Amino acid sequence: MTFDLKQHLAKRGKYIETALEGILSTPLLPDETARPGRLLAAMRHGALNGGKRLRPILVYETAKMFGRVDDGVLKAACALELVHCYSLVHDDLPAMDDDDLRRGQPTVHKAYDEATAILAGDALLTLAFDVIAEEAVHKDPGVRLTLSRELARASGIGGMAGGQMLDLESEHRDRTEAEIRQLQSMKTGALLRYACRAGARLADAPEADIDRLTRFGEVIGLAFQLADDLLDVEASPEVMGKATGKDAEAGKATLVRLWGVDKTRAELVRLQREADKLLGSYGPRAETLSALASFIVSRTS
Amino acid sequence: MTFDLKQHLAKRGKYIETALEGILSTPLLPDETARPGRLLAAMRHGALNGGKRLRPILVYETAKMFGRVDDGVLKAACALELVHCYSLVHDDLPAMDDDDLRRGQPTVHKAYDEATAILAGDALLTLAFDVIAEEAVHKDPGVRLTLSRELARASGIGGMAGGQMLDLESEHRDRTEAEIRQLQSMKTGALLRYACRAGARLADAPEADIDRLTRFGEVIGLAFQLADDLLDVEASPEVMGKATGKDAEAGKATLVRLWGVDKTRAELVRLQREADKLLGSYGPRAETLSALASFIVSRTS
């Protein structure tokens, strides 16, 4: 790595935070006559929480690799992040994962109340489809429409929401490798895939490049999930079978539990290699995306 | 009325039901690899419940008045209905209105569970933004994008979701007439307004006509709400002040409670007159929309 990725990510994260802050402020949009204060505050609580912003940064860096850097790219990146944030607000609800804290802060239903958290999630999701349609996102309305529609597909029953359903059904039930892969490709994979695909499309990359970056998104999605499962297992003193991590506790099947640590590490190496190969033809332009892939594979938190 | 509106509405409702049935079935869309069965079943439970389909029928009839009748119009109508259905699924949740029954059937969280109902609502909302983007909706992607974006505005913090927030905050709190109007124009008005506006846009009506039908949507939205409040009050043996309806029980301020029944009836007559005036220039073509407005003003259930 020829530059400080952590510092770079922090800088990009600030861009995203500032853009989100602008979107989640009080000025009214056409067709709006009010933004109820309590709802806006709850949405801000759910979205402006200092997250890592991995998904929007992937949008930004992919578009940048293909030569586009401007506020419109940031808007599109924010639309995706709004979807991610809504999913966290709803996942934290008592009926779902029942989490009281996120990033050390009370979750939205704790800071406000359950009804407000449900509405805040709903409104964050809805706002994403307003933001992605903004003129600045792309001069061609047809491209904006494609970005909007693919965002809906990545987030809906065939993507994130469907994956979350499969995950809820996974507790205390055995899953085959194929089932686990399906679940993960929907629950976490779909938005990461979308991030890279959207970034390439925003920069008018040729279809072959959009496809290549889509695959890159799938690869880092797989790596992200494997690294996550590995952390869950290795957070405990004993490994495999006796793991005391959160997934094991919930009786959730993961590839790490199916494969063991060694095979998982080998698969991560393979994925890293595939990611590098996909980026190979872009030369030094791909430096940041490549560093991001390494970061995802080897992350320790 | 020169034709049987009830029969007509039933027929149109069937069109919508059939189209929704097609959308909420198992064939996968591009970018989808699975539609988890339990989630799809919960979405179907929430959407295929024999509702009146007032909003999609307004889309359909408005487009028809301007000369367009085809499957694409039905798709756009269904997108709006999916948003309406999601809002009912979430509104029924224990943390919101806590309703066990809707149209005599168990609500989604009763038939399934709370987590599934939250996800089903989320996925219905998300699916709306997939459906509205379908090619059949309009040949011009720019028009589809506008329809999508205006749907987001009508449904989000500045529209329905924001109105629901204001409504939750209304319990046991006095509201001014202006505040009640604001709440209602967001909570129920925004989608009815959208229905008529979208119908005109789908049929490539000139801007002046789109504006006129937008106002028509606002007018029937107001009438819809007043008729609703009136029903709530008149369902009880004693009227005004001592009303034992659901709103009064919840301590919710309504215009009927502020104005009394007579003034409310007079306002409904005025709204009916404005609706008729707005449709005046369209002659016999407007017969169905005009009948729909009368139906909304004088409905008894």
Question: How are the SSEs placed, and which strands pair?
Answer:
The structure is a homodimer of 301-residue chains.
Chain A: H1 5-23, H2 37-47, H3 54-65, H4 71-91, E1 101-102, E2 105-106, H5 108-111, H6 114-131, H7 141-155, H8 160-170, H9 177-202, H10 207-234, H11 246-249, H12 255-259, H13 261-279, H14 287-297
Antiparallel strand pairs in A: 1-2
What does this structure look like?
Chains A, B: Belongs to the FPP/GGPP synthase family. Chains A, B: InterPro entries: Isoprenoid_synthase_dom_sf (IPR008949), Polyprenyl_synt (IPR000092), Polyprenyl_synt_CS (IPR033749), Prenyl_diphosphate_synthase (IPR053378). Chains A, B: Its cofactor is Mg(2+). The structure is a homodimer of 301-residue chains. With 301 residues, chain A is mainly α. Chain A has one domain: Farnesyl Diphosphate Synthase, CATH 1.10.600.10. In chain A, 68% of the residues lie in helices and 1% in strands. The first copy, chain A, has 14 helices and two strands; from the N terminus they run ααααββαααααααααα. Chain A has a two-stranded antiparallel ribbon with strand order 1-2. In chain A, α1 crosses α3, α3 packs across α9 and α8 packs antiparallel against α9. Chain A is globular, with a radius of gyration of 19 Å. The interface between A and B is large, with 59 and 59 residues.
